[in-house]
Design goal:
It is built from three helices and 23 strands. The strands form five sheets. Strands 11, 14, 16, 17, 18, 20, 22 and 23 form an eight-stranded antiparallel sheet that branches. It has a five-stranded mixed sheet with strand order 2-9-8-4-5. Strands 1-3-7-6 form a four-stranded antiparallel sheet. Bound molecules: zinc ion.
C-alpha cells in the first residue's frame, strides 16, 4: 500500500508542479552521465534510476527526443549526443516516465556543457573537389538525395549492445572537430575520426547494426553506413572495396570493407563518422565509453 501511495503522490506532484530540480519527490531520481564532462561534439551516455519502476522512459535533450532502454524497469539508459554547434551553457534533460500502474512522472536535471578545443589545419586538395564540373555537380546532387533518404530512416529499436570496438587497429591521423581550410578558400569541419591505415586493410563494424548504405559516393568514395538503432549511425568512408550489401545485418567486429583512398581523400585512410539524430559526434569518445550489454 505504501508503494502505491508513493506513486500517486508523485503523479500528483508532477501535475501540480512542472518538473524541476528540487520538485517534490525528485530526491529519489538519479541521473548519471558518461563522460562526466559534457562538451560540444561529444556523445553522452545517460543512466537514469527513477524513484519507482517504470514501463517507459523518454526525454527531451537539446531539442532531441531521447528514448531510454531498461532490462528491469529500474535502471534506464540511452546514448545521446551534443552537436558541435551547441554553445557552452546549462541545458536541461527533461525526463518523462510512465509507471507500471500508468501514472506519469517527470523530472528535470540541468547539465553544464563546456566548449571543446578543436584544432585547425590548412590543406591542399585537387581542383576537382573545390570546383566540380556540371557532371560532377549532378553526381553530388544525386548523392545528397540518396543520403537524405537514408538519413530519414530511423530504426526505433536499439541494435547496438556493449562497448563500441575500433574499426581498425591503427594510429589516428586526424581527430574529430578539426577545422579544415582547403586551398585557402573552402572551410569545413572534420566530422569524423581518421585512422592511418594502408590500402586494403580489413575494416570492421564498430557494433551490431544494419547496412543502410553500401555504395560509391562522390566525396565519401566507397561508403558503408550502419544503422545501430535509436538514431545512431556509423559511416565508413574512402573504402577500396565493399564487403557488405544494403539491407544486411552485421555483428560487431564483422568485416564490412577494405580501406582505401576513394572519394575526397588526400591519401589512404579510414574516415569513421558517428551520426546521432542528424548531428555528427566524436567517434573517439564513443569508442572509449563503457556501455551495458555483451
Ligand atoms: Zn576524415
Amino acid at each position: 500500500m505504501i508503494f502505491i501511495l508513493m506513486v500517486c503522490l508523485l503523479a500528483t506532484a508532477q501535475e501540480a508542479v512542472p518538473a524541476a530540480s528540487g520538485a517534490k519527490g525528485s530526491e529519489a531520481w538519479s541521473v548519471r552521465v558518461n563522460p562526466a564532462r559534457l562538451v560540444n561534439g561529444a556523445p553522452v551516455f545517460f543512466q537514469v534510476t527513477p524513484p519507482v519502476a517504470l514501463s517507459a522512459l523518454t526525454a527531451t535533450w537539446l531539442g532531441h527526443s531521447v528514448v531510454f532502454d531498461s532490462d528491469s524497469g529500474k535502471a534506464w539508459f540511452s546514448l545521446a549526443g551534443i552537436s558541435l554547434d551547441t554553445k557552452p551553457g546549462r541545458y536541461p534533460l527533461h525526463l518523462e516516465g510512465e509507471t507500471r500502474e500508468g501514472a506519469k512522472i517527470a523530472y528535470e536535471q540541468v547539465f553544464s556543457v563546456a566548449a571543446e578545443k578543436y584544432p585547425e589545419v590548412k590543406l591542399t586538395v585537387s581542383k576537382e573537389y573545390t570546383a566540380p564540373s556540371p557532371e560532377q555537380l549532378e553526381v553530388i546532387k544525386q548523392d545528397q538525395e540518396v543520403k537524405h533518404k537514408v538519413f530519414a530512416e530511423i530504426t526505433p529499436e536499439r541494435e547496438w549492445s556493449g562497448k563500441f570496438a575500433a574499426p581498425v587497429d591503427a594510429p589516428i591521423s586526424d581527430v574529430f572537430g578539426t577545422r579544415r581550410v582547403f586551398n585557402g578558400v573552402t572551410k569545413s569541419v572534420h566530422q569524423g575520426l581518421d585512422f592511418r591505415v594502408p590500402p586494403s586493410t580489413p575494416v570492421s563494424a564498430v557494433n551490431a547494426g544494419r547496412v543502410i548504405l553500401a555504395r560509391p559516393l562522390y566525396f565519401e568514395g566507397n561508403c558503408v553506413m550502419l544503422d545501430h538503432g535509436q538514431g545512431l549511425l556509423t559511416l565508413y568512408l574512402h573504402l577500396s572495396e565493399l564487403k557488405v550489401k544494403e539491407g544486411e545485418t552485421v555483428k560487431r567486429g564483422q568485416e564490412i570493407g577494405l580501406s582505401g583512398a576513394t572519394g575526397r581523400a588526400t591519401g589512404p585512410h579510414l574516415h569513421l563518422a558517428v551520426r546521432w539524430q542528424g548531428t555528427y559526434l566524436d567517434p573517439a569518445v564513443l569508442l572509449k565509453l563503457s556501455l551495458p550489454g555483451s
